Amino acid sequence: MRKLPTWQTTRKALTATALAAFVTGGVFLSSGTASAATTLADSCAGSVNGGMGDSVAVKGAGFADVVRTAAKRNEIFLHLNGVDPDGLARAISGKVLTVGSVPQSAGGSIAGSDMAGPVLDALQNEWGLGESALGTKAKTLQYIREGVSNSCKLTTLATNYVAPSTPRSDPSQGSQPGRGGTSTAPNGGSNLSNLLPGGQTGTAPQRDYSGIPTATPGVAVAPGVRYPSNGTLPGDGSAPQFGQGQDGSSGQGADIRNAGNAESLASSNTANNVQLPMLLAVIVLAGVTAGLVRTWVLRRTS
Length: 302
What we know:
By secondary structure, the protein is an alpha/beta fold.
């Protein structure tokens, strides 16, 4: 048997070590990428955030209460039919279930019916489902499927979603300010085409003032023609009012023209004369004042 030199043996050993390190590093890198592309949720209801295309997984503890409640529907006293709700809850708590993925959009949802399949697959071989011969296992799995479908739902939100930009309008189509021609808008010829959403021109449409009446030099009508000499202006007292004839009569009865008989309650025009009540008030005031003065004088002299 030929004996290899020492340097050749050393070179082969180093080569084998490098290859092993390369393979091992590749395995670690690939596993790290897979874990980074999985979004883990604590509960089967609520919302999760992740990158588009990432897998969505739920901790088994998030299904424990739902599985326990559903299994109790088929449980008999002391687990006589082999159904153990608490045992099934413990079994599912130790697992991590992939239930879907984040869509290639801003967000989406994962229904409970989509999560029921992974849950049933994880519990398929558990003893606590019941006796297969009696059909108990199938019934328990059916209850669990209904419970997960009705109680679980996840909303997925893509953190790296970017909304598509609105395409710019083509400047070559339609007329631009300062150029000839007319522009055609989607709403049937409106001149608001320059203000379409997403446009970057920042220009306002041209105004159309053709419908506004204006005075043309040389053809204006004289005021005497517009207002005849025998005509009347609005508000003229001599002009017939609404509901009256040309002679000023209304053509209606007196009971219509004068609907009430209100009269003034003012006194006569001799307002400067002193009336009798005022005169009596002055006399009474003078008498009271004289009595008070007399009493005061008597007290001072006594």
